[in-house]
Structure formats: structure tokens, C-alpha cells
Write a structure and sequence with these properties.
There is one protein chain. The chain is an alpha+beta fold. It has one domain. Helix content is about 35%, strand content about 20%. The protein is built from two helices and two strands, in the order E-H-E-H. It is flat, with a radius of gyration of 14 Å.
């Protein structure tokens, strides 16, 4: 079976206080996720529940921005 995440850019944003989908439900999967020469960034925000916080929006924006700066000729907006 091939790995669909290989050489991809993966951003995981999770609230450490999320009771609906606790980090423990995703932790093993995320920790074992192999991206090869891709990028895997995990942000576990203390005090955040099942929500999108301002910090998560900033992290997501920076993640996309960095990708656009690295590959401007391949990125389509």
C-alpha cells in the first residue's frame, strides 16, 4: 500500500482541552504519520477546546504563506 502523505505538507492543529475529539484520539496516528521529505507540523494549543483559535488561524496562515514563498511558480491562488 502506498503512503498518500509521503512528501506532503501536513499541519495538525488541535486544542489540548478538546473534549469532543481529544488529542489522545489522534496522537498515535499523527505521531506515526510518515511524510518523507515533506513537512509535518503539530500545534497542540493549551487551554483550547474543540474550536479554531486566533493562534490556530495564525499558524495556518503562516504554514500556507511559507509554502507559497517556497514554490511561487507552482502555487496557484
Amino acid at each position: 500500500m502506498s503512503n498518500p502523505f509521503l512528501n506532503k505538507r501536513i499541519l495538525v492543529l488541535s486544542g489540548a482541552a478538546d473534549k469532543l475529539v481529544p488529542w489522545s484520539a489522534s496522537e498515535t496516528f499523527v505521531n506515526n504519520l510518515k511524510v518523507g521529505s515533506g513537512i509535518k507540523k503539530v500545534v497542540l494549543e493549551d487551554g483550547a477546546g474543540h474550536e479554531v483559535t486566533a493562534k490556530m488561524v495564525e499558524e495556518a496562515s503562516a504554514f500556507v504563506w511559507d509554502w507559497l514563498l517556497e514554490r511561487p511558480q507552482q502555487a496557484k491562488i
